[in-house]
Amino acid sequence: MVTDEPPNGTGQKAGLFKPLIVQSDRTLLLDVHAPGAGEARAAIMPFAELEKSPEHIHTYRITPLSLWNAASAGLSPGDIVNTINTYSRYDIPSGILEGFSDTMSRYGKIRMVASGDAETLFLLCGDEAIVREIAAARALGNYLLPVKGGFSLRLIDRGTVKQELIRLGWPVRDEAPFVTGESLQVELRQTSRAGRPFAPRDYQLDAAASVYGDGGPGTGYGVIVLPCGSGKTVVGMIVMSLLKTNTLVLTTNVAAVHQWIDELLDKTDLEPDDIAEYTGDSKSVAPVTIATYQIITWRPDKGAEFPHFHLFRERSWGLIIYDEVHLLPAPVFRVTAELQAVRRLGLTATLIREDGAEDAVFSLVGPKRCDVPWKDLEDKGWIAEAVCTEIRLDLPEELKIPYAVAAPREKYRIASENPRKEEAARQLVENHREDQILVIGQYITQLESLARILKAPLITGKTANPERERIYAAFKKGEVRVIVVSRVANFAIDLPDASCAVQVSGSFGSRQEEAQRLGRILRPKGGKNAWFYTLVSRYTVEEDFAANRQKFLAEQGYKYSIQHWAV
Description:
35% of the residues lie in helices and 20% in strands. It has 20 helices and 23 strands. The strands form four sheets. It has a seven-stranded parallel beta sheet with strand order 12-13-11-14-15-10-16. α3 (77-87) runs antiparallel to α4, α7 (202-212) crosses α8 (232-243) and α14 runs antiparallel to α15.
């Protein structure tokens, strides 16, 4: 807690020991060593985004999108002011708080509502200046027709209009009705088919309720941010049981499709005939259909249409679930824009998108409705406590000159494939004899070599789905203790017994990838720690990219140590 008196008894103002420094450019500096730093970090996360996280001072920025997400979650400017006042070390710069209010008030100035005609909607705004600004926007000219108090638009343009308006700085409060979809009775079991007691956790029920709302206007859509291993699939199933309608689930790969099917059959009263798989292996449609992003966005060439987009209109869907919504491919945004009349749920461990399209997720899937900090769930035992370590290794002498003269992209690859990482990985596997270990990397030749050294099975994008699932099953049973995996294991893979990850290379500075890889080992382990190692070549560009990836760890409240590997 923040103390009322200075800890050293000098008589200085207590405020000097508060953890937050607020600056006029909307940045927040968090002193991680000050009393109350952990509380302050959790308090500002709903309305501020982490930018930098070196050893002592972490930098957060308050952006329009972060404030709109806060507004959509029910926070008021007064709530943000109170939080900042509680934790701020110095006086808050004049004008900045009024700026928060102005930005947040933009959310809801424009409302999208039913028109009485099933094919059209109204865009309402009580401010004539805003109406004129929208009317003058060339990007909206083909979609909006002026009417009293605003505009009318075609139902099919619902998403496109919202996307363009948020680019203009006007996030829409969407209160237009949804189609109910074809009815489907879905109930959660109290005892799973596997014979284990089953009851959703409190935070899962709260997350589902935050999207479902009261069933009225402005509810029934949004994004849930929960850590990997915390049961996001269960949140999806709770929403399905509330809405009781035909549901389309989009996820990242075939293994994730099969996991959704297994979970639905295990924890709901749905029968096998109620659920279908729509992938490269099988293209069936049922009241609950689970498909991959890959099959949906496949087309024979760049100029062709997307032949599988018809799935979105194959049945009368009442709910679409976007699993790992931060990976939602750009082509699906176009269809998502057309499907705004369907309730939609986005599930993710991190809203970070490498293409910067977080505002598109806000517009087309929905605002962030719930964001439970990783450390909160760790403290309550719902996910394992993670020990995060970066291990730095020198390049061998024979690679230092080739590295020095290489082009920037080749520099990264030389550093990533540092051969000394092989011995480090082998030693870490040897040190963790009691753990189930994932060795994760980016480059196939590196992974093939590691698989030979470790005598471990290798899974890459070329591994056939039956073989992948055979290896995963052997890992779950304990028949295989170590798996070497490429990026295919980043997403939606359920390996509950994995307790140690050794990351030998990654996608440059991807915080998104860091979240996914750490999440692979966070299922609770009966009080045991999870171990997350990242191998980084010293004095190379890999150190810079690693620093960016560590922003994610810092944002979630994790501490990491840096060690040097002695040859």
